[in-house]
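task queued by scheduler; priority normal; single chain, no ligands, no partner chains; default sampling; output format set to structure tokens
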Amino acid sequence: MMTAPTATATAQATAPADQPILELRGLQKNYGPVQALKPASLAFRRGEIHAIVGENGAGKSTLIKLLTGVIRRSGGEVLLDGAPVALANPEEAIAHGINAVHQEVVLCRHLTVAANVFLGDEQTRYGLLRKRQMTRDAQRILDDMGFNIPAGAMLGGLTIGQQQLVATARATVRGTRFMIFDEPTAYLTRQEAAELFTLIRRFKDEGMTIVYISHRMEEVFELADRVSVLRDGTLVGTRDIADTTETELVSLMINRTLDQIYHKEQIPRGAVLLETRGLTGKGFRDISLSVHAGEIVGLYGLIGAGRSEFALSLFGRHPAAAGEIRWKGQPVRIRDVNAAIGLGIALAPESRRDQGLNLNLPIGLNLNLPVYDRITFGPLVAAREEASRADRQIADLAIKTPGRRTLASSMSGGNQQKIVIGKWLNHGAELFIFDEPTVGVDVGTKAEIYRLFAALLKRGAGIILISSYLPEVYELADTLHVFRGGRMAGTHRYRDAADEVVLAEAIGVE
């Protein structure tokens, strides 16, 4: 179901076929003396998939906000079908057929899927909502897109990935012809991502222009016709995807090579920190492995393979039902999170925004949360110690912030991940469990996180690295365990098996 054609849509029908649908001429955005986006000129072709890549802070978010009317430009102009447009607010952008699907879903969790699909475009009769009709229409839209999502379900009961697909469906009912996807697969399963890619290609075939923003290079090369690179607020180049390589794009983005991103140091293994023997619990069975000091143990598998469930058991969220856990050679029972923390086990969860941080609190408070019992005397907090601990982690982890009083909610995904890590460094943990640590962060921040892994190992810590991104665990793990269906399907030492073998074990292909 599409909205009625706008005047802009009518203009599109008469515009020359070779004329760009959207053109930026010297577009820029300043915040006082700070140039968030330096004058950029770029043309988007009709019916193309145009990728935008760059580090966090490179200007991608600023560009999205300018094109969707969230913020006003400081200079330059935007031409739509050859005619200047103001894009002064989101309503104007939507009226022109410009929509965005954001990485962080901005829908209403307490409403049904159907209500979210038609949010702002509700169907009414005599002033009353036509709920049944909207549910039927929304279900047709979802089915047509290939999304296996019930329109009558509450949005809050869906996974984050499913909510992302609902946001995509909502954008299509608004007469969209210029769609921006911002890290759309960050929380999608492999199957959901495949469904989305099929839909994006269909949109392209129907003449829609797609702007695709992603930190995942394999997606850029799989989908895009062209790719533009932003660095430090500057548009540094545009390439036809057939004429460039991942190495060239990374160099344009950060002036570093791929080898420098996957920072792998040979660090001698120390004593065994953790060992499990036949551990069984919710979502996993009969898992036996060990983690040494100075070692990265990778857990790879598809979504739902049991990796995260196993890790949550080690952290005391869902205690194991059978098997044994040994900590530094001694059998232990991890009945709850406090028991795990007391041993020295830390978890950086997959959803850092929901589970790893208090977004409405300052960075300093987040960094000190695990240690306030050590820096308080009765009802009083040792203010100097509190400030010193926070400032040390901000400096050591290169957290980009004006200061410790800045709210965690205002930080980029990469900096939020650093705050989660810094919190546990403050505590003095010895075993770090990282669940999808680089989801939604750029390649530059990935390199910083990987260097941080090496620093932890040198301190004598051990790391369990859970990732659905095979190059990450393949290049970093000293020991790699493959999970499938809640069981361990394979174990490999560093690079002793081809990545195709690892993937086949995860999928179950002989």
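post-processing summary
- The chain has 19 helices and 24 strands.
- The longest strand covers residues 34-44.
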